[in-house]
Amino acid sequence: MTQHQRLLIIDFGSQVTQLIARRLRELNVYCEIHPYNKVTDAFLRDFAPRAVILSGGPDSVTRAGSPRAPESLWTMGVPVLGICYGQQTMMTQLGGKVESGHGTAEFGRAFVTPTEERLAILNGWFEDGREQVWMSHGDHVSQIAPGFKVYGTSPNAPFAITADVERNFYAVQFHPEVHHTPKGARLYENFVRLAGFTGDWTMAGYREQAIQKIREQVGDKKVICGLSGGVDSSVAAVLIHEAIGDNLTCVFVDHGLLRKGEAEEVVTMFRDHYNMQLIAADESDLFLGALEGVSDPEVKRKTIGKLFIDVFQKYANRIEGAEFLAQGTLYPDVIESVSFSGGPSVTIKSHHNVGGLPEKMGLKLVEPLRELFKDEVRALGRELGLPAKFIGRHPFPGPGLAIRCPGAITREKLAILREADAVYIDQIRKHGLYDEIWQAFVAILPVRTVGVMGDGRTYDYACALRAVTSVDGMTADYYPFSHEFLGETATRIINEVKGINRVTYDITSKPPGTIEWE
Ligand code: XMP
């Protein structure tokens, strides 16, 4: 198997380390982020990077015992770029000096001007004399290490850009990875070209390698994949199917809380179009039965979560000889983040590992998307020929419509909700807004209101429309629909959906609200 060129990012705990990886992936460069305390000399040797980037971080190199790069880095002969804390540790380790505070802290926008000397990683910079950069540092370099020269200065950072060209060591005080350093991407591009990266990280290449890797890991054993119809599990399933064909069986659980036509859509796509072994388990009676009379949101979640595991296990046990469970874990879920709260501890998020299923069932994991960011998963989906409808889907929560039906859940309310939601999404698509919105849905409210239609009085449910923009679901803003759009949508829902006579639009941001109603 051909191996792509690799770049190593040593993470010292900056909030924006992931952005470095994003900038590099955009340049078709494969990189991995690893916390500084994992990067030993042996790790470095085995990883065999073509270049190394040292991230920023919240600690102070002047503190005894603060994080350092492994000593062997300086004699490996590969280009190194240090950013902020990365610059400071580079200087300290190579014989320069760093000082704390003394009124030279810089946060936010600053302007860097060049010195006489030109530097390859600054190609395209300083065409108009100076460049805007983003600073965020308390400490500053007070003496550069032997062999280094200064290539750019800012009012509060006389050593804003330094380098030892001979050894290919580059160090900047600012953060080129953030949006507020407009020429930052160019700096990264210059750096990786200088390091000899040819941009060999492409989706077509990744697809081939991933398929190869799955075959090597799984051999002729069987794999089970929980398919939800969401982007991640869909892409994972199609990729694994390409690698091992009928040795993959997907399990799709219909818990009775899906949207209109969703179950049929998933079955048609994966069983009929992709010709996959697919168990479509209609367990709606079981789930809805268990939810009868339950109105507390957390009890709903727990009930559904527990049943889901039981049901999945029941079907998975029918697949004879299965040894692997496939999961659509993504790179942001597996990056080990550096926490400085109680010393250098390492946290690994494991929320994808649903309820410890693999351990419980004695299954090994196949996670073919572990190296990808969300937009790369979408690109891979396109590469695999998945229709746009599956790739660009809004997120949909595991408990489904249960948490969009505040209060007690009834089949009647679910049926009304499905219809209203379908009209709303249809409206959004027709107006070409679907891809601009992060998530949109209808919630049916546990309240009936009086209305008048034709000559008659109505006494039906009210519903709330929700649409938000967001980057990661952690914070969100309501989407600013036009009054025309809202008016037209309300009219359509009331006319087309029996059971709803009032429509409201939820304009709460998150925080203080949450995206879902429960
Ligand atoms: P909230 O409502 O917390 O939602 O602002 C943030 C994002 O998470 C989704 N969500 C869930 N997803 N199980 C899931 O799989 C859940 O219990 C759950 N609750 C919320 C929500 O749809 C949004 O994308």
From TrEMBL:
GO MF, one example: ATP binding
Functional pathway: Purine metabolism; GMP biosynthesis; GMP from XMP (L-Gln route): step 1/1
Enzyme class: ligase
Record: active site: 84 (nucleophile), 175, 177
UniProt xrefs under PROSITE patterns: GATASE_TYPE_1, GMPS_ATP_PPASE
GO cellular component: cytosol
InterPro entries linked: Class_I_gatase-like, GATASE, GMP_synth_C, GMP_synth_GATase, GMP_synthase, GMPS_ATP_PPase_dom, NAD/GMP_synthase, Rossmann-like_a/b/a_fold
Pfam family, one: GATase
Record-annotated GMPS ATP-PPase domain positions: 201-393
Catalytic activity, reaction form: XMP + L-glutamine + ATP + H2O = GMP + L-glutamate + AMP + diphosphate + 2 H(+)
EC number: 6.3.5.2
Top-level taxon in the UniProt lineage: Bacteria
Alphabetical keyword list: ATP-binding, Glutamine amidotransferase, GMP biosynthesis, Ligase, Nucleotide-binding, Purine biosynthesis
Annotated ATP binding sites: 228-234
Protein's job: Catalyzes the synthesis of GMP from XMP.
HAMAP family the record matches: GMP_synthase
Complex formation: Homodimer.
NCBIfam families reported in the protein's UniProt record: guaA_Cterm, guaA_Nterm, PRK00074.1
Protein name, as recorded: GMP synthase [glutamine-hydrolyzing]
Organism: Paenirhodobacter populi
